[in-house]
Amino acid sequence: MKIKKILLNRVFASTLFISSPIVLISAGEANGKPDDKPTKPQEPKREIDKNFDKFKQLAEKKIKEAIGKAIDETISFLKTKVDKIGSLDKPDDKYYEKLEQKIHLLSLISYFKNNKQKIIEKPDEYGFPVRFPYVIANEKKYNVGIVKFNGKTYNNIKMGKDNKLNYSELINPEKGDLITIDSESDNFITEDRFKKELEKYTNELIIQAKRMVDADKDIPKIGKDIFLIDKEVNDPANPSLKVNGLIISSPVGFKTWSEYIINRIKPKFVEFDLKQNEQYIEEVHQNNAKKRPVAPVVIPPLVPKKDLDAIEIHDANEVPLEIPSLKPLISYKHLGKSMTELKNIFDSSSPDEKNKMFFFNNPINTRYKYFVKNLSISNVLNKTQLTATVQITDTAAQSDVSRNYAIDVEMSNNNSKNIQFLFENQIRIIRENFIKLYKSVGLDEKLNYPELGNNALMETMNAIVAGAVGVINKDKIVEKWSSINDKYKNHNIDFNEPNNKYVVQSSNEILNEILLALHESDINGKYYWNALADTYDYILNDKESGFKSHLESEESKKAIKEKFKELNLEVKYIDKLVDLLNFRILKFKSLSQKSSKWVNSLNLHKWFDEYISDSSIIKNKIDILSKLLDTKKPAKASKEEKELIDSYNEAVNTVSYTHLTLPTN
């Protein structure tokens, strides 16, 4: 399995993307600390476009033109379909079917021909309620939220402040439709972007209009939906004479054919408009979302940039829409309760108790936490549904960065309480194991990558997280996971002990399956587990940008020697620490090889523990070396001087009591 493919397709749905400016180290910044504190970059002031007041008129003009063109093309499309049916003056096995089609098509043609100008002038009244272009053309501040319509949920919907532009006139709460407002946003759309969005919307409108009328399920059935009614009519051959004839009734439940056609077209158009609205994401910014400061990147990419083409990392001041909208899973304690019971318990519970009612299958990308914020019960198409409003929170953000979405809670879960208890705790244990890996490089569960202070290490860890997320979503792992739980479902499981033997045993089996799947994976054509070892090697030994380049600089060596001499420190321990690091990295590479004895013996859990331990030791030594190589002289009795001496003493102790013996594969 190729993780590169996962990165390109699926991982973007599950990882944080970071974008950090690269700050190259100078001779006086070997430990990654600039001489002066970095100044906070000035963000360009965002303003409403100077031509914003012209957007409304432009939108009205383009929408009218598009609707007129859509009607013309739709009439032409319908006439072509009528011609294909032909005259119905001969016996045909599908006579009634063709007659029904022709009646429907001719009624549509009549509707569009007779009402064309009215539709252009008052599209709302004739089944074409345009909303999205007018929201971004009229509102300098708009609301952003969720719209549930016709059984489907649309996230990131931009809405106006009045009923005309907030979609409230288009939804029916009695059918389960609802609107939830999450935030307010300034409308910083540029004139160029507005024109592109308007062009996209109108082009799609023209295309989709034909599809809105081309639905077999909308064709009324003779004898069920429409009927032939006796009526005196003019004789076609002699209009002055009255004759007995038959006319086609309006569809059952509607006074006119126009009313019926509007009823069929309007919901489809609302869905079209909501989809166009949902797709517009680039200019959405919450007012309270502040740009997070990014740690300076002190060493250029640790892996050659050409080998990192699958990963594009950017910072964001909002939760990316690519982060998946996971289903809330009912905790074992509440499994089997009715929708009403769940809602009543939820509404009367404290925030902490509410969080315990549900869990989410998100053991890898721990930066994002999911919370159920609200439960509602609705009836959609005669089906009762429990809908949760879920909030995804970016735990690494310094300000409130979150995104809400609505999703139905799966009530028909066939899992027993045993399986649900196991599943919930397995996710927790897998999460704990991967957090150990993150901590080995200096991260915690927030996965705030800029804290690593190194562009390549950020990219490597992002790829490692991304690969693991992709693997646990693979069908093979999902099936294995389910199969493992089936083995334990009939055991007498102690619900009072979250780390009971069945939880631990099953979690280890699942973790082994995940590690084995990653063992069969790669990152950009290179073995998955080698990525971190290769990155550490690059940090230390790259001739252009690693520590080695700094150690070989005459200017740097002179400055370090002078600093050490003033503090009565011995420079030889730097060389010894470098030797130790090279040894440790070589050992780590040996452990990370695909032929590693731990991997081949399938004792992956033990192997993973050793992998984490080696990574932690190396990262610690790199941090020590970074402090020792700082060419800037610390002030007497300063915090920096104490940190330098502490690092030196740790280096002395480390190299004095380490025996360099490589393992055998």
Automatic annotation (TrEMBL):
InterPro entries: MSC_0620_UU052-like
Top-level taxon in the UniProt lineage: Bacteria
Database matches in NCBIfam families: UU052_fam
Name of the protein: Uncharacterized protein
The species this protein was found in: Mycoplasma tauri
